[in-house]
Write a structure and sequence with these properties.
mainly beta, 2 helices, 8 strands, about 130 residues, two-stranded antiparallel sheet
Amino acid sequence: MAEWTLRNLREEVDNAAEQFGMGPDLETRFGRRALELEGGGFSYQRMAPNYVLPFGHRHAAQEEVVVVLAGSGRAKLDGEVQELRQWDALRLPPAVMRGFAAGPDGMEILVIGFGDGGDAETIDGYWDES
């Protein structure tokens, strides 16, 4: 067996957002299992123009970096809203509650997780809360 793994994220990795009824305005493709990673993980996410994720999340131990690949939007971080633009890189400690909203051109992000990823806590309606 090869010591490397190659997958096309758009063609060979399922869109998890569809499985949870959040398509077509959200596309989320997780790379951990698809690339047989032994530590850490990542996801590619595409949000339609003005789409707001219906939940926020935080982790017990997993640190994340979010890189804006295209478009723009906002991140709500422990209640504080931060503008995001293309090529911004945002480091998020585990305990920070985070949620994302796309701008008028939509937003594509790459989320890189350092840890096992199975420690997420979600809060529905995070953008609606004060």
